[in-house]
Structure to design on (224 residues):
């Protein structure tokens, strides 16, 4: 069974602070994705990382895929209340199946 | 449609009742997935269709769970003799062209079993 562990489980910060959340696994994935989910909605894809060591930036969000393609991090600079949500990582196999972690619930207070 | 549509959005069932949850994927999307998301957890894979073929049902928790996609478009997840532990949000996702592993999720159907 491929398991993805996300940390921290909960994170509450003030607007303007920086933060990093982590996604770790003992398994190698062909690609890894980060989603954000708001209450009452389905997850929405933020980014896909494919190559070990890859870094992708999406405005204030920076995503990194570990060299061994087993772990990833998401860094948010100058967090805003609109960043509040559940951040999920998902590992993908060559068979196309996605395995999700339990997520990090981020609250950004104004 | 423009997105993945799920219905009903909310369903309350008495223990022992049967329920049916519907998913309308994005038009033309060949792949369709069902996930179960319990409160405070991430989505857990239930089953996967490619067109009308159910290629993987390894995540279905018991034989009370059944999914179909008879014409390769709309899919229905049926849960027979519901139990309290079935209470969760059931998410449907469809995937576009091969090589683009991008899941588009619906808003989910929240099932509460009393």
């Amino acid at each position: 069974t491929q398991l993805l562990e996300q940390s921290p489980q909960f994170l509450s910060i003030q607007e303007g602070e920086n933060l990093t959340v982590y996604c770790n696994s003992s398994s190698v994935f062909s690609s890894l994705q980060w989603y954000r989910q708001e209450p009452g909605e389905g997850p929405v894809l933020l980014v896909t990382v494919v190559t070990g060591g890859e870094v992708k930036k999406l405005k204030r969000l920076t995503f990194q895929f570990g060299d061994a393609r087993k772990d990833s991090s998401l860094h948010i600079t100058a967090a805003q209340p609109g960043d509040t949500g559940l951040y999920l990582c998902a590992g993908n196999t060559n068979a196309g199946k996605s395995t999700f972690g339990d997520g990090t619930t981020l609250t950004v207070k104004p | 449609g423009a997105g993945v549509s799920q219905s009903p959005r909310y369903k309350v069932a008495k223990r022992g009742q049967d329920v049916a949850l519907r998913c309308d994927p994005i038009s033309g999307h060949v792949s369709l997935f069902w996930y179960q998301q319990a409160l405070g957890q991430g989505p857990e894979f239930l089953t996967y269709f490619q067109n009308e073929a159910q290629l993987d049902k390894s995540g279905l928790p018991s034989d009370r769970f059944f999914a179909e996609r008879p014409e390769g478009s709309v899919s229905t997840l049926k849960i027979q003799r519901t139990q309290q532990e079935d209470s969760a949000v059931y998410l449907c996702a469809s995937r576009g062209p091969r090589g683009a592993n991008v899941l588009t999720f619906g808003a989910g159907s929240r099932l509460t079993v009393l």
